[in-house]
Amino acid sequence: MRTFILGLIMSVFSFGVHAQSFMENVKKKATEKKALILLNFSGSDWCIPCIKLHKNIIETEDFKKLETENVIIYLNADFPRNKKNQLSPELKKENASLADQYNQKGLFPYTLLLNSEGKILKSWEGLPSENALAFSKEIREIKENQKQ
Prior knowledge:
Elements: H1 2-33, E1 36-42, H2 48-58, H3 61-68, E2 72-78, H4 89-102, E3 110-114, E4 120-125, H5 132-147
Parallel strand pairs: 1-2
Antiparallel strand pairs: 1-3, 3-4
Helix pairs in contact: 1-4
């Protein structure tokens, strides 16, 4: 019985550690690459502005260059509603942990530009008014200002 209880406690503890270590790993990777973190909260299958943000900005070549050139590490905390799009319990927990820390108001879409320590440098509530090129340019400028 003691072994069962100990196993149960360890499994619950490991979920908490994994969720926290996920963001810690992203921060570590951002530090190594000297990149910023772009964290986007979305409802990929129900939030129309979220869908537009992904289609018109995140899926564009201008945005993808930010990742390939190590300007940002992109992290999407998705909260789908349709049963067929549900995430693994582990990923749901990670996204909920990110929402507890960075999106307590539950805004969608909500995009944050963070430094490698997790400090918020800029936020966008809703669909950004800029096009992909202007959005990417703004992120590049913020990164350049971080070097100074």
